[in-house]
Design brief:
about 400 residues, alpha+beta, FAD/NAD(P)-binding domain, 2 domains, 7-stranded mixed sheet, 6-stranded antiparallel barrel, about 20% strand
């Protein structure tokens, strides 16, 4: 059978592309190598499925860096408000409890997958699972698609196979191999959105605590402009939390280049050394705190306070004013700028997102059609675009899938 459109990949981008294409008319087939579609979608946001956020397009695109403007036509086609309306129309109500992140009511990704499958069935889209695509060959009037189960033909093909992160959820990077074989440049691929490992072992003693509004900054000349702010969690062997997940995309290329990456943390909600010193002087004058540990705990959880006091060669059980001057100065500086050394990460096995992909220079942003092969389209994580936590990547997946499917 020859289809009007074959979508390779049954994730967020692929399912939306299939729905969009089917609404435009013609027969559509989704090919998914796993036994079920939506495996990564089901796991996203810890199963809560942060669908999008409330930012306007201009600010939204800024979070994707220098390539963000490429997204404009897709966001025009399916904005955040459009996406919420779409899900409402297929039976998924949404809520925005924090005024920013948009979730399905009930915060269950399975409700999203079930609704998308129901819509695919309503539109008579064929879905073939447990089927891996081996090759895509341009032929007269379209493409021949070779799979592990059969050979198929289509007028157009949408590649929506995702990146390389979380291979247990079907991300093997085969889409990049296919795109490359068809003449597309693939930019350097790096794992992103994952925990980081540190050289320092003291972090293991602080693993029970989450620190709010931590600023991470790269402490390497020429890269000191790289910084991010958000919640941080210490682990047995490093750091994680939203700010680390977002910032890891900046760290992985530097790790490859330098072997290890020096960073500093501001754990005190942006207070600098002078402001911390002033805060301590005022507290001591008031006589509120009997020892240094109690004083530092006004800024940090006890476990973190203890470790930084140790690093400063200070003592927990004496007053701050009785510490040696060098220890006082060192502690204040450590509170404002805590040094850590990033030495590794868990790679693509635990990466939620891939940094890099099909070069945007070879794709028309107005249609997401390849400039190299007519009738071939890309969407979602296949393209060299990745954003932070907070609904950015799913909004891009759905919007790009919608645009790619709309024009096939």
């Amino acid at each position: 059978m020859k289809y009007n459109c074959i979508v390779v990949g049954g994730g967020a981008a692929g399912l939306m592309a299939a729905i969009s294409s089917a609404k435009s008319g013609g027969s559509v087939l989704v090919l998914e190598q796993l036994a079920k579609v939506g495996a990564k979608l089901k796991a996203t946001g810890g199963g809560r499925c942060n669908l999008t956020n409330t930012l306007e397009s201009t600010e939204f695109m800024e979070h994707f860096g220098k390539n963000g403007r490429f997204m404009q036509p897709a966001l025009n086609a399916l904005s955040s408000k459009d996406l919420q309306s779409f899900f409402n129309s297929i039976g998924v109500q949404t809520d925005v409890k924090d005024g920013f992140r948009v979730f399905p009511k009930g915060h269950s990704s399975q409700t999203v997958i079930d609704a998308l499958l129901k819509e695919l069935a309503r539109l008579k889209v064929d879905v073939l699972t447990s089927t891996k695509v081996l090759d895509i060959v341009p032929i007269s009037g379209g493409f021949r698609v070779a799979t592990t189960t059969k050979e198929l033909e289509a007028k157009s093909v949408i590649l929506a196979t995702g990146g390389k992160g979380y291979p247990m959820l079907g991300a093997t990077g085969e889409g990049f191999s296919i795109a490359s074989s068809l003449g597309h440049k693939i930019t350097k691929l790096y794992p992103a959105m994952m925990p980081l490992f540190t050289k320092e072992s003291w972090v293991a003693n602080c693993k029970a605590d989450t620190i709010a509004k931590v600023t991470i900054q790269v402490d390497i000349k020429k890269y000191k402009k790289l910084r991010a702010t958000g919640d941080l969690i210490f682990t047995n062997n490093g750091i994680r939390g939203p700010v680390v997940l977002d910032f890891s995309r900046e760290i992985t290329p530097l790790l490859e280049k330098f072997g290890e990456v020096a960073i500093t943390l501001n754990l005190t909600k942006g207070l600098n050394a002078q402001e911390i010193s002033q805060k301590f002087k005022e507290a001591q004058r008031a006589g509120s705190y009997t020892n240094t540990l109690e004083l530092v705990q006004t800024l940090l959880p006890k476990s973190v306070a203890i470790e930084l006091i140790k690093l400063a060669n200070a003592k927990c059980d004496i007053s701050f004013s009785k510490q040696e001057g060098s220890a006082r100065d060192k502690l204040i500086n450590l509170l404002a700028n805590t040094p850590l050394t990033i030495v590794g990460h868990s790679g693509f096995d635990m990466a939620m997102i891939t940094r890099g992909g099909v070069s945007l220079k070879s794709v028309n942003p107005n249609t997401l059609e390849s400039k190299v092969v007519k009738g071939l389209y890309f969407c979602g994580e296949m393209l060299d675009l990745d954003g932070p936590c907070g609904g950015y990547n799913l909004q891009w997946a759905f919007a790009s899938g919608y645009l790619a499917g709309k024009v096939t």
